[in-house]
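Can't paste images in this forum, so I'm doing it all in text. The chain is below; anyone willing to post the predicted structure tokens underneath?
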Amino acid sequence: MEQLKDEQIVSAILNGDKELYREIIKRYENKLSRYLSKFSSNKDDIEDILQVVFIKAYKNLYGFDINKKFSSWIYRIAHNEAVNHLKKYKGNSISLDDVEYRLIDEKADINNDADKMFLKKDVESVISGMNIKYREPIILFYFEDMTYEEISDVLRIPKSTVGTLISRGKNLIKEYLREINQKHGR
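Text version of the structure:
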């Protein structure tokens, strides 16, 4: 059997096959958990936010336009819930796994301007402390592999602004790492 697209599953759910929502959860649980971990390092908070995301997505499925991309829509809900959580609890700490660390290192090309000996903690620290307007597109681009257009849909900002914010965020990372390296004599 050919795998259904997300939008086809949503259409089937809207036509009465409510059990298919399990497939949506299965497809997005790990992706959204990883995304939410960039807003909070507390596993319980991530699980709570994730649960709210899936409940809100289910309740609002009838408002989803099946001609649009479902992934952008559900990431928008996750984004809103993560931002609401940050505002409520002021918890900014993120945690990068080794694959994500290498990914941002390669994509942002931060090794060209910083000593190769900088620690993963430095990258985590700069992203955690970064203004949310830069952090959000950085996370969506580098860790969620979204296109500028998808990020534009999630954050509801123009595509050109996405590029500007990613570029500025990347420069902030480079500058911070340069300062850290100078401070530690690297």
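The longest helix spans residues 159-183. The two ends are 56 Å apart (CA to CA).
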